[in-house]
Specification:
Blueprint lengths: L8 H30 L9 H8 L1 E13 L2 E12 L4 H14 L16 E7 L2 E6 L9 H15 L7 E6 L2 E2 L2 E2 L4 E2 L6 H7 L3
Parallel strand pairs: 4-5
Antiparallel strand pairs: 1-2, 3-4, 5-6, 7-8
Helix pairs in contact: 3-4
């Protein structure tokens, strides 16, 4: 009598082959996933140029802004981040030009007219020689004049607080600043300013 539940050997072999293939595929997939996790690439290290740039930058020189408080005006330092390779004269030029460009945030203020230009700057053994455009002397009362003089003097001496500064306007040594007549001593120093003026 023929058994209806009996299946041909070929069918059993076919099913067994499918199961074996599924197991093999699962094993391969699992191996690939584990291998991907264990062999994942390390975090990308910083580029040598990034490291080089960070090590070539340092704080050199400062710009001095004005800050209004209950006690009146005060000078506020703003350090510059510049390349180490810059010569001191270039550092001071960068600082003065930054000062004349005006503050980038509302936290600071300036009394230097925005049209003022740096015509020349020379750093010598005896001190700093500055030549500014005529706009530096325009507008504002005595408080404004004292403020701009302090900003300029302290910025120009940010590499050496004891340095002397000679100031010319349009090529002529400055003797009197403003309509109320702030007498200017040549050369100027921080010590001279503090002894003669208050902000």
């Amino acid at each position: 009598m023929h058994d209806r539940n009996h299946q041909p050997r070929s069918s059993i072999g076919f099913i067994a082959g499918i199961i074996a293939a599924m197991v093999t595929a699962g094993t391969v997939t699992t191996w690939w996933a584990l291998n991907s996790l264990t062999n994942s690439p390390d975090p990308i290290p910083p580029k040598p140029t990034d490291i080089q740039q960070s090590t070539n930058i340092e704080q050199r020189g400062q710009i001095y802004w004005l800050n209004s408080s209950s006690n009146g005006l005060t000078l506020e330092e703003s350090p510059l981040n510049l390349e180490k390779s810059l010569e001191d004269q270039e550092v001071l030029k960068t600082a003065i030009n930054g000062l004349l460009s005006g503050p980038e945030t509302a936290d600071y203020s300036t009394t230097i007219p925005s049209e003022t230009k740096l015509l020349s700057l020379k750093l010598e053994d005896k001190g700093v020689h500055l030549n500014l455009s005529s706009e530096f002397t325009t507008g504002g009362g005595s408080a404004s004049m004292r403020g701009r003089l302090a900003q300029l003097l302290y910025t120009a001496t940010s590499l050496d607080p004891k340095a002397s500064v000679w100031l010319s306007v349009a090529g002529e040594p400055l003797q009197v600043l403003g309509g109320e007549g702030l007498l200017i001593e040549q050369p100027m120093t921080r010590e001279w300013f503090e002894a003669n003026f208050e902000l």
